[in-house]
């Protein structure tokens, strides 16, 4: 196992302290930080409580090539963040950055606004009275009491322990009258472009399946549009460099097993080499590596337990993903069975010495692409993304395409296949306020800007860091109004909320005259939907 930990009970500082604030934000993600900044600008007392030791979520942990649909859909503090990025590099409209620069911008804001952050505080229990959250306790023995709570974790841990309704997995298309949800086989990307034999001994099913392939019956595989409990794959967004003075060779994981990559090797030997194609250039000779192709950094099918798992189980999954991601890089750079030109190409890269200096130069945050999703009075669906349905209580815009990574890898007719990938471009669309607050009968003083009420496929468009920043700020604005008026978060007058959001420079509706429409760009490029 790596020395890097998601959860280590031995390092939890025992407290038995009680902390009280007007607003408590659970989760030091980008949404948590923008929530706290907005509240502090109002002069509202708040604090951030984080279960791990990491601050900044994916923005400070390798997601450095920003997933952006239209820059004109980004407003408020989210826009301020990217403006600071541009100023740092003295370049207009810069959305690609080094993780250490994002970390420094967040640190400056945290210091400027004197935002208290309590790390290594894994949640233990939430106490509600009359549908109102009163407090929560952590494994350290600490108690946190507030008037309003904001859950900004990637997993929705706070709202789950508060008894709020939620969904894990993919809904059937029939549930919300969608067309891109559920099991998906059509027009897939990141698929095997060749017929690849899945068996240890090619052509011999009795020899067993290669590692990473699920043994599913046709009944278990299902049919397009059907619901299931699987979730899209996780990985690490790995920061790379070719700078010899700043480069560390890819480490060999403690439990390295080259057998895990035999399917990749078999694919490479058919002439398909694309596993590292999505390495996006960053400033100062660095790259952001993401999953690409049929077999890459996505650890398909190995994350299903994560959303509802206890911390010990998450630690095992976390270590498994570290070993898998470090292992694939080590394998490609060193295994003699890999063609030499590929080994040489991969070996040009390494981990940068000047990034993640407190986590072995490895990004500390696992990329939780989706986990729990709250079920509220309004569920965002692909009908919203496609503008079949429009909401009239917008708190911000999403503009990235509907994006689901693969959820499963199995065998059909002796051929290995991936399933679950969806990439559908959209025009910027509004996100409903009702999707970030629970049903009134479940909690009246909670806001959920990250694991909001959304179907699997609509979440694929919404789940981007700039949008989480936007929604975190909007949640803080709503919290301010609820506090001032002493009302449940469900009883806000939307006209009041909208006016305040606009005052805080949020973009709540799309200007159709803007030419930077991602769907229009796609149509112009490809001449089709």
TrEMBL record:
It comes from the Bacteria. The keyword Iron applies. Keywords: 4Fe-4S, Iron, Iron-sulfur, Metal-binding, Oxidoreductase. One of its GO terms (molecular function) is 4 iron, 4 sulfur cluster binding. SUPFAM superfamilies: FAD/NAD(P)-binding domain (SSF51905). It holds the Pfam family FAD_oxidored. This is FAD-dependent oxidoreductase.
């Amino acid at each position: 196992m790596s020395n890097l930990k998601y959860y280590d009970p031995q390092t939890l500082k025992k407290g038995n302290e009680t902390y009280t604030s007007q607003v408590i934000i659970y989760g030091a993600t980008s949404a948590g930080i923008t929530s706290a900044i907005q509240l502090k600008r109002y002069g509202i007392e708040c604090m951030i409580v984080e279960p791990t030791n990491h601050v900044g979520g994916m923005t400070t942990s390798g997601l450095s090539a920003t997933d952006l649909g239209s820059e004109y859909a980004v407003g408020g503090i989210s826009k301020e963040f990217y403006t600071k990025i541009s100023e740092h590099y003295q370049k207009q409209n810069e959305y690609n950055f080094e993780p250490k620069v994002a970390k420094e911008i967040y640190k400056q804001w945290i210091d400027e606004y004197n935002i208290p952050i309590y790390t290594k505080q894994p949640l233990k229990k939430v106490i509600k009275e009359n549908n109102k959250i009163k407090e929560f306790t952590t494994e350290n023995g600490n108690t946190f009491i507030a008037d309003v709570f904001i859950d900004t974790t990637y997993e929705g841990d706070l709202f789950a322990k508060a008894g709020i309704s939620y969904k894990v997995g993919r809904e059937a298309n029939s549930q919300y009258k969608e067309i891109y949800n559920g099991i998906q086989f059509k027009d897939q990307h990141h698929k095997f472009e060749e017929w690849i034999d899945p068996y240890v001994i090619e052509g011999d099913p009795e020899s067993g399946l290669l590692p990473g392939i699920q043994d599913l019956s046709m009944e278990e595989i299902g049919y397009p549009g059907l619901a299931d409990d699987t979730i899209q794959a996780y990985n690490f967004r790995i920061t790379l460099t070719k700078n010899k003075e700043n480069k560390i060779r890819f480490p060999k994981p403690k439990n390295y097993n080259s057998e895990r990559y035999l399917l990749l090797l078999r694919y490479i030997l058919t002439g398909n080499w694309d596993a590292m194609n999505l390495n996006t250039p960053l400033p100062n000779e660095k790259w952001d590596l993401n999953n690409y192709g049929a077999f890459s950094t996505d650890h398909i099918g190995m994350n299903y337990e994560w959303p509802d798992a206890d911390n010990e189980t998450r630690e095992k999954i976390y270590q498994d993903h570290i070993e898998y991601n470090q292992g694939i890089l080590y394998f490609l750079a060193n295994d003699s069975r890999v063609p030499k030109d590929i080994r040489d190409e991969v070996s040009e890269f390494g981990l940068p010495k000047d990034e993640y200096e407190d986590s072995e130069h490895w990004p500390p945050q696992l990329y939780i692409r989706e986990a729990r999703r709250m079920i509220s009075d309004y569920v965002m669906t692909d009908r919203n993304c496609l503008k079949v349905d429009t909401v009239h209580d917008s708190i911000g815009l999403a503009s990235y395409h509907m994006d689901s990574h693969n959820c499963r890898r199995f065998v059909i007719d002796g051929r290995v296949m991936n399933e679950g990938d969806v990439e559908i471009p959209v025009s910027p669309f509004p996100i409903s306020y009702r999707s970030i607050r629970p049903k009134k009968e479940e909690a009246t003083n909670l806001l959920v800007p990250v694991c909001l009420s959304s179907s699997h496929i609509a979440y694929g468009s919404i789940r981007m860091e700039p949008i989480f920043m936007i929604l975190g700020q909007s949640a803080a604005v709503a919290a301010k109004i609820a506090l001032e008026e002493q009302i449940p978060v469900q009883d806000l007058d939307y006209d009041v909320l909208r006016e305040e959001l606009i005052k805080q420079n949020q973009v709540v509706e799309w200007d159709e005259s803007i030419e930077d429409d991602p769907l229009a760009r796609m149509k112009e490029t490809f001449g089709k939907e």
